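Notebook entry, structure prediction.
Reason for the run: the old model in the group folder had no record of what sequence produced it. Starting over properly, with the input documented here first.
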Amino acid sequence: MQLTTERLIVRPVQPADVDDLFRIYGDPATNTFNPSGPYPDIHYAEFVLDRWLAHWQNRGFGNWAICPQDQPQKIIGFGGLSHINIDTITINNLGYRFATEAWGKGLATEFARRAIRFGFGQLGLNEISAVVRENHYDSQNVLKKSGLRYSGKIHDVANAAASLMFTLTAEEWRNKGGD
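New structure, fully documented this time:
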């Protein structure tokens, strides 16, 4: 399902996106706060993309390729909602990663708000969470501006410090006006 925002086109990932996935997730700059580091090679990007495609097949939602409306063939990021197990819990995870040229323009917040609206409005999810490193202040600000609140620490990466989890319930989202 393709979605739009004021400046973005958001469409389900497809096999042809693998080079862009590696370009963005393999870039050390986009992994500054990721203790696992950048993707090591294109084969790892293929493995991840296959998982994402299977999530769409099995659940009817997942990760999208994010493109500017004025350049719909140019992928500037990836993000979406995924049902994942972290530590001892299962969450509906909101995640995103943008190429460096897209940073600082409010696109992550625009994407996150649209993904949340889709998750609660179309999918009927009860809760959406996001996990962020404690020193990644920009991403924490995106989550706060998107309506999520700090809900605790979670161990999401082996042998690394705990991350912060931010959460928003459908009821909280509706009480805030549903957007």
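Summary: The chain has one domain: 3-175.
The old model has been moved to the deprecated folder.
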